[in-house]
């Protein structure tokens, strides 16, 4: 069964703290993504990675960085958390040609981050 | 029940009726589309997908229709059940595997 696991479901952090959000997938997927989801704004892509040690900026990378040292793990880092980064963060993964129909993209359950 | 037009943010459906959720996509070069269901407090769950070389694909109680001429996608749910209450998103996938999401439609099933 497909599995994308986000280790932290709920976090509360203080302004200025460094925050790590971890994501692990067990499907040997090449591609991994980080999105944030906010009411009225939908899902917005922060960063993605299509291979180990590779990363590409998404639509809203400011204030974030990522790390992909191993194929199965993709970490989102907030160097200095701010209140406007309070959001639900979603990790996803996919593999080119993984299915006959296309490059199905699977999501984790989400990490709710509150910055106070 | 049906969300008519480009997008309606909410759809209320009587249990047992069929639901139709509509979505307009923006990139005529997108060649792969996915429908997701998202329940409160959870991540998006894959429902069904379709490639651009198809105009219809069926799953269990769900059908996706693709009209490339008008860049329109729809999801049909047969015999809607209370467990179908959720937010439904369409997504188009570009050639670099990034997704662009529609705004989402909240489906509420009335008993």
Unreliable sequence segments of chain B: none
Structural class of chain A: mainly beta
Order of helices and strands of chain B: EEEEEEEEEE
Give the number of DSSP strands of chain B: 10
Cα radius of gyration of chain A in angstroms: 14 Å
CATH superfamily of chain A, please? Immunoglobulins
Q: How does the major sheet of chain A shape up? A: 7 strands, mixed
Helix proportion of chain A:
under 10%
Beta-strand content of chain B: over 45%
Cα distance, first to last residue of chain B? Answer: 14 Å
User: What best-fitting shape of chain B do the alpha-carbon axes yield?
Assistant: globular
SSE order of chain A, as H and E? EEEEEEEEEEE
CATH architecture identity of chain A:
Sandwich
What report would you give on this structure?
The complex is a heterodimer of chains A (116) and B (111). Chain A has 116 residues and is mainly β. Chain A has one domain: Immunoglobulin-like (Sandwich), CATH 2.60.40.10. Chain A contains no helices and eleven strands. In chain A, strands 2, 4, 5, 6, 9, 10 and 11 form a seven-stranded mixed sheet that branches. Chain A has a four-stranded antiparallel sheet with strand order 1-3-8-7, with no helix packed on it. Chain A is globular, with a radius of gyration of 14 Å. The model of chain A has no long low-confidence stretch (mean pLDDT 91). Chain B has 111 residues and is mainly β. Chain B has one domain (10-110): Immunoglobulin-like, CATH 2.60.40. Chain B has strands at residues 10-14, 19-24, 32-38, 45-51, 56-58, 62-67, 72-77, 86-93, 99-101, 105-110. In chain B, the strands form two sheets. In chain B, strands 1, 3, 4, 8, 9 and 10 form a six-stranded mixed sheet that branches. A four-stranded antiparallel sheet of chain B has the order 2-7-6-5, with no helix packed on it. In chain B, a hairpin with a 4-residue loop joins strand 6 and strand 7 (72-77). The mean pLDDT of chain B is 88. At the A-B interface, strand 5, strand 9 and strand 10 of A face strand 3, strand 4 and strand 8 of B.
């Amino acid at each position: 069964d497909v599995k994308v696991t986000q280790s932290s479901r709920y976090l509360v952090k203080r302004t200025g703290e460094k925050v790590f959000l971890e994501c692990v997938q067990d499907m040997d997927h090449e591609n991994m993504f980080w999105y944030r989801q906010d009411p009225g704004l939908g899902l917005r892509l922060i960063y993605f990675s299509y291979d180990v040690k590779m990363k590409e900026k998404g639509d809203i990378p400011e204030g974030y960085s990522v790390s992909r040292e191993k194929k199965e793990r993709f970490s989102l880092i907030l160097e200095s958390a701010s209140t406007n980064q309070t959001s639900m963060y979603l990790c996803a993964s996919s593999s080119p040609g993984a299915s006959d129909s296309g490059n199905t993209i699977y999501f984790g359950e989400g990490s709710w981050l509150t910055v106070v | 029940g049906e969300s008519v037009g480009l997008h309606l943010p909410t759809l209320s459906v009587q249990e047992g009726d069929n639901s139709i959720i509509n979505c307009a996509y923006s990139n005529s070069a997108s060649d792969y589309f996915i429908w997701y269901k998202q329940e409160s407090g959870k991540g998006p769950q894959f429902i069904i997908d379709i490639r651009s070389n198809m105009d219809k694909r069926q799953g269990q109680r769900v059908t996706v229709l693709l009209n490339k001429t008008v860049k329109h996608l729809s999801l049909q749910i047969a015999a809607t059940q209370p467990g179908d209450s959720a937010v439904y998103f369409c997504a188009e996938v570009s050639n670099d595997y990034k997704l662009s999401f529609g705004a989402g439609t909240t489906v509420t099933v009335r008993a």
